[in-house]
Amino acid sequence: MLILVRHGETEWSKSGQHTGRTDIPLTPAGEAQARAAGSVLQHLLDGRAPVLVISSPRRRALRTAELAGFPAQRITEDVAEWDYGDFEGLTTPQIQHERPGWSIWQGPVPGGEDAAAVTARLDRVLASVSSLRSEGPVVVFSHGHASRCLAARWLGEPVTDGRQYWLGTGAVSSLGYEHGRPVILHWNIPR
Q: What is d(CA 172, CA 140) in angstroms, rounded to the nearest whole number?
């Protein structure tokens, strides 16, 4: 099982601003979400310890891991949020004012990452945890778009199919297998 935890609320996630590289803290509500995610994780793990806890290096993800009670054992840019480049800090409506119909899923993302770059780094994550499949669950503390893209790649879909999986702040999801095929076991579990 691969368990995904989106970081708790930040001021920018609350306002809908694209937050990739900018390193901002959790709000008090985000800290409460992170603690609640810990309870959900304990329930999903059902007494098992994760064999690995991975986190984005952004403090909002690291703090979520800490408050949830699962401090990161591996910190990697590979699970960081999509790099929004020139659109960092802007909302989708602000971007669409200049580029009607724009979405992160279709691009372009000037100064940031395209879908191929996001695919490459998330595929590295999946390759690195595939050998742990028989050892036990892996927990990943990440971000909204990155977690949605990771789920899509787990299922063998393009990262752009992540647009179909809405994910709230502080939400917990799990990916696993049924009859040897990758599936979503739980999605966007409420805190």
A: 10
Tens-digit pLDDT profile for the chain (191 aa)? Answer: 999 999 999 999 999 999 999 999 999 999 999 999 999 999 999 999 999 999 999 999 999 999 999 999 999 999 999 999 999 999 999 999 999 999 999 989 999 999 999 999 999 999 999 888 789 999 999 999 999 999 999 999 999 999 999 999 999 999 999 999 999 999 999 76
Q: Which two tokens stand for residue 105?
A: 């899923």
- Predicted TM-score (pTM) of this structure: 0.96
Active-site position among 7, 18, 143, 145: 7
Active-site residue (options: 9, 31, 81, 88):
81
Q: Give the single-character DSSP code of 29.
A: H
Catalytic, 43? Answer no
Give the closest residue to 36 by CA, choosing from 57, 8, 71, 73. 8
Is the distance from CB of 40 to CB of 81 less than 8 angstroms? no
Distance in angstroms (rounded) separating the CA atoms of residues 138 and 48: 11
Closest-CA residue to 146 (of 27, 21, 11, 26): 21
Tokens 């007494």 correspond to what residue? 47
One-character DSSP codes across 32-52:
HHHHHHHHHHHHHHTTPPPSE
Q: Is 7 a catalytic site residue? A: yes
